[in-house]
Amino acid sequence: MRPAPIPALLGLLLLAACAPSGEREVRRALREVDAIGQAGLTDVMMTVAEPEEAVAYFTRASAGSPDRLDLRRGLAEALIRAGRTTEAVPAWQEVAAHPESTDADRVELAGAYIRTNQWDLARATLARVPPTHESYERYRYEAMAADAARDWARADSFYEIAAGLTTTPASVLNNWGFSKLTRGDYGAAERLFTDALRHEPDLFTAKNNLVLARGAQRDYALPVVPMTQEERARLLYTLALAAIKQDDLSIGRSLLADAVETSPTHFEEAARALEAMG
User: Which ranges does the UniProt record give for the TPR repeats (predicted)?
Assistant: First the structure.
């Protein structure tokens, strides 16, 4: 037998309300229906809603139900999505202080500290997360915190673990490559950026970082990666700056000219730099 549609079920519930015992059942059932609807809306707001819309929703919802941890967590996550990191810190602090908070909440608090450059607080928060809590976000933040402390061995170890805990490692590989780049390990950086692009060919930051790593080795040829015409112009500009920084002025001038020719209507920076070089 097919289940009765929702309106029919509600009709049966309302009929049952004629009896005193049925009235209590009706109220309970309606509360459950409302909770299911609220949970569905919460999921939508946390995943597909516009960031500012999600912030507005969770602000109202958590004010109306201040004891609900899921709504407080939703507000903290929405603030991160909206780029309102300064506001996200106290929101995650409230979540982490809640009696029902989890180790994952403390990891996200550490992430909020990292986004606001509060590295000591981030490290202290991560130190309170037991080693049994193993997640991609935990090790990604551990790697970034170690990076900031110039603890390269720990950073490399955590980046490697994080990359192995996700099916979409492009972002963490890009971060790891940038860490290698800042240390002057240009060959390792180039390999990591290339690997990031193998996983996510459209990640422009990895393309730009790859060009920086090649330029630092005086390799001024663009890498063979997918790129739009505008991306090509920007990468040529990055290579030109790398060449100029290393006093390869004629190469830098030529690369600037290539950048302007590649995208003359979109890339004024290269034109201005070329004019300044005379």
Answer: 170-203
- What is the tally of helices (H) and strands (E) in the chain? 15, 0
Compute the distance between CA of residue 225 and CA of residue 30 in angstroms, rounded to an integer.
Answer: 57
Separation of first and last alpha carbons in the chain: 84
Q: How far apart are CA 45 and CA 105, in angstroms?
A: 18
Q: Which two tokens stand for residue 88?
A: 């996200």
Instruction: To the nearest 10°, report the CA torsion of 141, 145, 150, 155.
Output: -30
Residue showing tokens 């229906």 = 33
Integer angstrom CA distances of residue 26 from 5, 29, 45, 259: 17, 5, 29, 70
In terms of pTM, does the model score above 0.85?
no
Token representation of residue 122: 């981030």
- Residue 162 has φ and ψ, to the nearest 5°, of -60, -45
Other CB atoms within 10 Å distance of the CB of residue 150: 11
Per-residue pLDDT of the chain (278 residues; tens, 9 = 90+): 444 444 443 443 343 444 445 555 545 544 444 443 455 666 666 666 788 998 999 999 999 988 899 999 999 999 999 999 999 999 999 999 999 999 999 999 999 999 999 999 999 999 999 999 999 999 999 999 999 999 999 999 999 999 999 999 999 999 999 999 999 999 999 999 999 999 999 999 999 999 999 999 999 999 999 999 999 999 999 999 999 999 999 999 999 999 999 987 667 777 777 777 76
How buried is 107 (Cβ within 10 angstroms: 0-12 exposed, 13-18 middle, 19+ buried)?
buried
Runs of H (alpha helix) within 48-82:
51-64, 69-81
> What residue has token string 């509360």?
31
* 93, amino acid identity: Q
Of 76, 81, 83, 85, nearest in space to 106 by CA: 76
